[in-house]
Amino acid sequence: MTTALDTTAGLEVTPVSGSLGAEVRGIDLRKVAAEDVDTILGLVAEHLVLFFPDQHLTPDEHIAFGRHFGKLEAHPNLSFDAERPEFFELRAEGGAGGVADEWHSDLTCQDEPSIFAIVHMKKCPSVGGDTLWANMYKAYDELSQPMKDLCEGLTALHDASPHGHPERMAVHPIVRVHPITGRKSLFVNEHFTRRIVELSPEESDALLPLLTRHATRERFSVRYRWSEGTIAMWDNRCTQHNVLNDFEGERILQRVTVMGDHPEAAASSDYKPFASEVSAKVWRNKPVIDYLRSRN
Ligand SMILES: [Fe+2]
């Protein structure tokens, strides 16, 4: 990671923590050329989350910027208006409303979670409502070798029960390989990950919280204080994030989401799902059993 001011392609790139995150100045995101897209992709691969202050994009400019990086998620029921199904707005007032205040990677309850999120801080409180991100490459790198060896053979069940939809499930490798950088990262999160599929319920209950707490250690993280008009772009494949729900007043965040990812496991394994149906504890295996049945 760059440790001092960088001037890649005439840009001013300033890292904002020792683990991830950089502010980028000297570019107008309304006028992005093909070579700028490559530069931005290189910077986000290096810093994992980029902050572009003073951009103030309109919804259409925001959508156009996002489309440089791939197909955008469209959700007619959640979108801002009918003409822009790929444009979302999250509003919160005094900490209530759209505040994602639990550590997560986006949409890991889906088979294909997002690649990038691109958000515009439209309105923010004068103080509070910072966002934290954590570097999942570092989280993986700093596991002990025996724990790496164990985790690389395991998968985990993720679901959308925090959003009232426990039936929306996906299974992903606990250690994934980034398709661009080739680096391994830890891929479990407090919000969506329910169960390690190949372990017993008790074993999963012991290991999963250990991993999700480890993943979000302070020294793997950055805490960013927003100003209105800043665009942030992060790689969802190798980071987690969490909003600090400590604010009064209004916070309005607009976003587009780049889709198209299928997490690749760091290693294959022959471990079978732990999904016994023959004991009084069968209910604890039910989510795994339901998932396996849904895929047969
Ligand atoms: Fe999120």
Explain what the structure shows.
- The chain has a domain at 136-215 and 267-294: Double-stranded beta-helix (4-Layer Sandwich).
- Helices cover 22% and strands 30% of the residues.
- By secondary structure, it is of the alpha+beta class.
- The strands form four sheets. Strands 1, 2, 3, 4, 5, 6, 7, 15 and 17 form a nine-stranded mixed β-sheet that branches. The chain has a three-stranded antiparallel β-sheet with strand order 14-8-16.
Low-confidence stretches: none
Ions, cofactors and other ligands present here are: fe (ii) ion
Question: Secondary-structure element order, as H and E?
Answer: EEHEHEEEEEHHEEEEEHEEEEEH
Whole-number average pLDDT?
93
Oligomer: single chain
CATH topology of the domain at 136-215 and 267-294: Double-stranded beta-helix
CATH class of the domain at 136-215 and 267-294, please? Alpha Beta
Q: Could you give me the name of the CATH homologous superfamily of the domain at 136-215 and 267-294? A: Clavaminate synthase-like
Give a count of the beta strands, DSSP E runs of length 2 or more.
18
Determine the number of helices (DSSP H or I, runs of at least 4 residues).
6
Estimate the global geometry from the Cα principal axes. Answer: globular
Main sheet: strands, sense, barrel: 9 strands, mixed
Radius of gyration (CA) equals 19 Å
CATH architecture of the domain at 136-215 and 267-294: 4-Layer Sandwich
Question: Which range does the strand content fall in?
Answer: 25-35%
